[in-house]
Amino acid sequence: MHEMVKGSNVSLSALSENAGSVIVSLGWGSPTGEGDADVSVLLLDANGKVRSDADFYFYNNSVAADGSVQLLGKTPTADGSEDRISFDLTAVPSEVDRIVVAASRYEGARFGELEGVKLSLADGSGEELLRFAIDDADSVSAIIFGELYQRGGEWKFRAVGQGYDTGLAGLATDFGVDIEDDAAAEEAQDPGAIDDQADTTAPASAEEPTSQGTLEAVPAPRRPDDDVEPRKPTARPRTAKKKVTLPKAAKKTLADNEAWKEARLFPVSALKSDRDREMRATSVLLSVMAQVPEFGRRLTAAFGAPAGRMETFTEVTLPHGDSPRRPDGVIRVERAGKLWTALVETKTNGNGLKADQVQAYMDIAARRGYEALITLSNDVALEGSPLVDVKIDGRRKHKVALWHLSWAEVAHQAQMLIRHEGVGNAAHAWLLQELLYYLQHENSGCHGFQNMGPAWVPVRNGIDDETLCQGDPRALEVVESWERLIRQVCLRLGGELGQKVLPVQRTKRGADPKALRDRLADQLCLEGKLEAQLRIEGTPGVLAISADLRTGKLRTSIEISVPEQGYPLTWAKRLIRRLAEAPADLHVETLIEGETGGPRGTLERLRPEPADMLPKENGTQIVGFRLSLFKSMGNSRGNAESGFIRSVDDAVHRFYTTVVVHLDGATPRRASSKRGATTG
User: Fold this and answer.
1) Which of 102, 418, 571, 599 has the fewest CB atoms below 10 angstroms from its CB?
2) CB 286 within 8 A of CB 329
3) How many CB atoms lie within 10 A of CB 183?
4) What is the pLDDT of residues 302-354, one digit of tens each?
């Protein structure tokens, strides 16, 4: 892998023969696990400006119509999170001279608060080609990480590392984008008014490397372009994030009575065996992918597929020695006369992927020049831990990428499109709705992760009778299952809300995921608890969940900071008013500076007397409040009503919908403990 330094450049073709399609990943972490940033991409012409506002890709404009750019969203890593962008370099218009890859923070946050800020680039097979670490980010709120540009008919990458102190708005306007920075612009008397606040000087061109010095913010006003016609105000992209709304209520049915069943495109009642379920699930999914380009592209772009005409096939027979193989499906994408092909292997219900079967398909794909093998099952892959181990023949020139999708991920992507982001037309929305109905039906076998594994009962019993010892491999199996469950909970909740929901990984930069799981397994043996934290976009804190296997209790909680100014009694009364519709059994605990805990009580008891939340000692400093709900934990390892998996899912859903939704949005953390208010 090629390590980049600021100002250096490299030819992609020198690093890989499969660089026509690449995935750029921007990563970061934070000590608190709450730090985040958003990626953006700008396509620039020879003058260093966008051709139009449509060349600016960010969270409100995430996919190029020609498939050249697609923002794939965030995925959790051991260090924090990673935001990925797919580039089909063969589809980039000829008049585009270079592509700028950047990221920005919001609400006054700075990159200096993050750690492990880096960029990596992988080719179409998923092999990481280069990496660029930015170690000098400080007070800037936006950074240009790098740029892709063409020279001599080949694509190159330059490591830039230039900072901006004016955020996404300043960065975008510098390259000629006409933007509305926030909701206040919508309320302005003059809708065509342009925010002329500080901008930055143009970054170094592709011909002039940037300096090797410290990352500094660059402040210069935007240069006017007299020869550019003014754009219509309605076409201006808004850098303020879209307000996500839940789906509208279903229309009143025309049926005579409730016993009538609505006709469905994909019936599930006739499914009798696992083989039937696998064949039907594969056919349903692949057909919708081919007919709904937004959905098909969303699933395949992460695997290095180009944007183009997609065709999908099932029941394909391929030669393999004396016994031909029949993979569950094939995906083929044609772009500019080139063909990208992937085999598909599907499992439903509790059936797991078989190593020998996957190995055979990898060998077939390599011999036939296929780019990828995609596996689908109810299992969830863990970072750094493949579901099946396959051997790669290093003598083969052609590389085949092995990718995995959980059925929960497929359902999540369908939800995001039809309930929050929208698709091209009503027919596409209906097809996705039918797909989602099929996946969520109890008889489809596509329910996502649904079994804690054979180690669950022995570990739970070992904790009860205190016979579980550190180093027991069964504890590690339970920890891995817990991690899969939490990732699936994030997918389901994120799909319902239309917001980013990610597991928080509080680890040191560069930590080995396996070493972290070993440590958590030892912690489980000692304390009998499984713990996780979820970061939900727009909420004032991290949602924590703890499963105490000794007491059989699940605890969901959130800690919220107090405002920078004000009086403790005012804070307490305001919080109680906010929680007017929250459950009466909600536990409220006052957090005291330097102490393990303060006054606490149930919401039912505190409603008539909010002052009971305040400590009696004068001069005691309040830093926040912790809100918690408790419920009984399911015992069985499966996904039944009484199972552990269902109880965790229900606990998180109940806590969010009855508690978190009533709280204010994200609030900045207190800069110094000396600024907190005291009682007295």
Assistant:
1) 599
2) yes
3) 11
4) 888 888 889 999 988 888 777 788 899 999 998 877 899 999 999 999 899 99
